[in-house]
Amino acid sequence: MEKFMEKYPGEIRELRLGTEGKSAVAGGQNTLPFHFFEGRPGQLKLALEITDSEPYDWTLSLQEFYANVKSSPVDWARKSVDEYGAEMIFLNLNSMEKDLPAGEIAAGVKRVAAAVDVPLAVFGLGEKEKDAAVLPVVAAACSGRKLLLGPVLKENYQEIAAAALEHGHAVIAQSPMDINLAKDLNIRLGKFFPLDRVVIDPLTCAAGYGLEYAFSTMERIRLSAIAHDDKTLQSPIIARVGKEAWKTKEAMQDTGKGILWEALTAITLLLAGADIVTLRHPDSLRRVREMAC
Amino acid sequence: MPVKASDIQKMLPEYGRKNCKECGLATCFAFAMKVANAGIVLEKCTHLSVENRAQLEEILQPPIRQVVIGQGARAVIVGEEEVMHRHQKTFFRPPGFALLVSDTDSDDILSARLAKLSWTMERLEKVSRFDLLALRCGSGDSKRYSALVLKVMTATDAGLILLADSADCLLSAYEACRGRNPLVCVTAGNYAKVMPYLDKSTAVCVRASSLEEVEKLADKLKELGFENLVLDPGSRTLADLVRDQTVIRRAALRHKFRPFGYPTLFSAAETAFDPERQLLPAAAGIAKYAGIIVLDDVSQQAFQALLTVRQDIYTDPRVAPTVEGKVYAFNAADESAAVLVTTNFALTYYAVAGEVENSKLPVYLLCQDTGGLCVLAAWSTGKFVPEIIAETVKKHKMADKVTSKRLVIPGYVARIKGDLEDELPDWEIIVGPQEAADLPKFLHKLKNIATVQPKT
Questions:
Q1: What pLDDT is recorded for position B79?
Q2: A1 contacts B350? CB cut-off 8 A
Q3: ipTM
Q4: B248 CA to chain A: closest CA distance, Å?
């Protein structure tokens, strides 16, 4: 079968996160997703999502599931790693909705970062002004911890990425479901920010809610990076599956369905090129890991 | 990859300049054009040499052959795929889902499993269900296996897949159901005993445990005159699945490698003993080119999830997905309901509908037919503008459906508020959020305003 193998010119930059001792990476592959037969595989990371204050907007079944830890981000993060095997923690800063002082939010992030030995992603609201006000404060408070900060948008990348650069963090560059927009943002970032510290977030849709768009967008980004050696797109891709899967009608109806929706969406997007996948339920994490890692 | 008419013309008599008109067409080039579009058969050219005809037949073959299993309305057609990645064109033929049963299943288990054939799921105006039934011979007893075949034939008209190691079992089952156009699975171990008794038109699945073995066996069956092949390289892990399916499709499409120019079968049922653990491999089979996916004892929820993923991946990216432009009622909408208007782009609809359901408040959602354009694109091309929205509101008699005449428009088109008020003087026009996710909060606020300050 040798004659059917293909070598590709491009490779995905390795992402390093965390201080010494927890420098786990994503990316590093020089081939298409799961093409172990013709190239070097990259590292995948399955993250569990947590929130920095009560996850009141999460579906009730998940709030019940995390009842013992949901008011303590530190306990929640520890449990996610020690008990559920999360390879990364994805901390949603939902306390920003209550407009807490940025310093207070940043202190909370610092406590979570100190509590776990896995890499930490810290995610704002996706509101350009609020994120630009809070994330630089988080970046400074956690200086040197090599967090993954986001989302960085076309409208606020300068403020947030500048702070991330100064304090040694990586960023999640978010653009709406289009290879050209993802490329454009990476080009802008690349002018002053090292691209080996960028993760592309092209947005995610759950099964039945536009999964095909997320699938093809990620697949095109990855093909451009690997097969066409597009240097501006050679970053790991993040699929934020947890949030999308758990707001579906199906997940609201039934926890079992939610787990299925989350796991099936995750595996499909891993095949499209996602390197980091966020999940909200440990059962989906277990299933995806069994299969893919 | 379509064949060019000029390439066909060169192989016609006198390099395509004979122009004898005996085929009924004015010139050889016209004939070549029709051949290229499969509009006429080569036989119509009576002067074509035997060698050229064989050569033409070869180049005209699709790189991946079409194979039909079953018959009538339940026939499953697989193959004829044209691309490696769906954005390059589209994936054409969704994989057939086959439910696995065995002749060692007790009567209770068997009837419980067969009951799953009646599960249906309707989404985007399409009804999906199990497409095929895979019959495993676990007993090694040909009488028992044939009895199973006869029994399921009375229970379903779905296409059948015959899975047995012993040639005797396979052949007696084949005799029992050959009129149903089953897919007969053979291996290197049993094919020599089986093939002489099969009709040449039979759909045959080449089962092996590596790509090399599949190639060898497919070649042998082709030599024996069998054309309707399905390939199963025996993938058992995710990495194997991606490798096997990718190599087969790539070899067929890019290298025109004939032994791999057939649709594939992936037995998710054999990837793990626990049916729950077969779901992710099955989902991977959908994204990665499987033509038929054999499933063991799945739950209805899991099956629904798989059907949803299948429909997503096989959505044609060249066509904007739409829902019907009409009024959708949510959460027992009555005269107290809020009225929202948006476009009939399916993704917009599903995002809005999902959040409206989450709000648990009664809502009428009016979907303007914009030909599948999203809100901003439809507005900028004149398909979601005040005059048109007003007309739709009147056409659906929304004023008679609710007591409080308040129309919520998407936040992205806040600018049309004034003009829409002029078009609909009886209505209060309210600008809603830009993102569907903000709808539940917005709707609850809206409801409270309604109760605190009834509109005068």
A1: 97
A2: no
A3: 0.96
A4: 9
Dihedral angle of Cα B270, B237, B259, B207, to the nearest 10 degrees: -20
| Angstroms from B32 CA to nearest CA on chain A | 32
The whole-number pLDDT of residue B453 equals 44
Question: Which chain B residue has the Cα nearest residue A207?
Answer: B309
Residues from chain B contacting residue A216 (CB–CB below 8 Å): 85-87, 317
- Find out if CATH 1.10.10.10 is the number for domain B67-313: no
Domain boundaries, chain A: 14-26+43-285
| Domain B327-452: CATH architecture, name and number where available | 3-Layer(aba) Sandwich (3.40)
DSSP E strands in A28-166: the ranges are 45-51, 88-92, 120-123, 148-152
The per-residue pLDDT for range B280-325, each reduced to its tens digit, is: 999 999 999 999 999 998 999 999 999 999 999 999 998 887 889 9
The C-alpha atoms of residue B354 and residue A249 are separated, in whole angstroms, by: 6
Q: Measured between CA atoms, how close is A133 to chain B, in angstroms?
A: 22
Q: Where are chain B's structural domains?
A: 5-60, 67-313, 327-452
Nearest alpha carbon to residue A31 among A293, A267, A225, A288: A225
Contact assessment for residue A236 and residue A12, using Cβ atoms and an 8 Å cutoff? yes
Q: Are B365 and B352 in contact (CB under 8 A)?
A: yes
Q: Using CB atoms, pick whichever of A37, A205, A267 lies closest to residue B280.
A: A267
Residue A107 · residue A75 · CB < 8 Å: no
Q: What is the pLDDT of residues B178-193, one digit of tens each?
A: 999 999 999 999 999 9
* Residue A279: strand pairing partners: A48
CATH class as words, domain B5-60: mainly alpha
Architecture per CATH, A14-26+43-285: Alpha-Beta Barrel (3.20)
Q: How far is residue A41's CA from residue B313's CA, in Å, rounded to a whole number?
A: 24
